[in-house]
Amino acid sequence: MVEDRYKELAQRVDEAIGFLNAAGATADNPIMNTVEFWVSHECLHLQYEQALTREDSTTGHYYDCSAHMLWVGERTRQLDGAHVEFLRGVSNPLGIKYGG
């Protein structure tokens, strides 16, 4: 029983690998050896965010290096507040949390 289940599973794995090879997803393809990883969080603690903000020496733009994308949420959405003002000065992609 166990041997039959193992053989069936091994055959299915082999078929899946064959499909990937036919689709060009081999170990030689760079896309199979790289990962894009993005980090996002609410811009909540301004002292933390400010400490991790850097100027790009080639463009002069400022980026908050604590995350790729920062967002404004329920706690930070005041249009005349410090959080929105801080985000106005950085060039990171920005998000807005919408709650109904």
Automatic annotation (TrEMBL):
EC class of the enzyme, as a word: transferase
Subcellular localization, as worded in the UniProt entry: Plastid, Chloroplast
GO molecular function: 3-deoxy-7-phosphoheptulonate synthase activity
EC numbers, comma separated: 2.5.1.54
GO cellular component, one term: chloroplast
Pathway: Metabolic intermediate biosynthesis; chorismate biosynthesis; chorismate from D-erythrose 4-phosphate and phosphoenolpyruvate: step 1/7
Record's catalysed reaction(s): D-erythrose 4-phosphate + phosphoenolpyruvate + H2O = 7-phospho-2-dehydro-3-deoxy-D-arabino-heptonate + phosphate
UniProt-annotated binding residues for phosphoenolpyruvate: E74, R75, K97
Signal sequence segment: none
Any one Gene Ontology BP term: chorismate biosynthetic process
Keywords: Amino-acid biosynthesis, Aromatic amino acid biosynthesis, Chloroplast, Plastid, Transferase, Transit peptide
Family the UniProt entry places it in: Belongs to the class-II DAHP synthase family.
Identification of the protein by name: Phospho-2-dehydro-3-deoxyheptonate aldolase
Organism from which the protein derives: Prunus yedoensis var. nudiflora
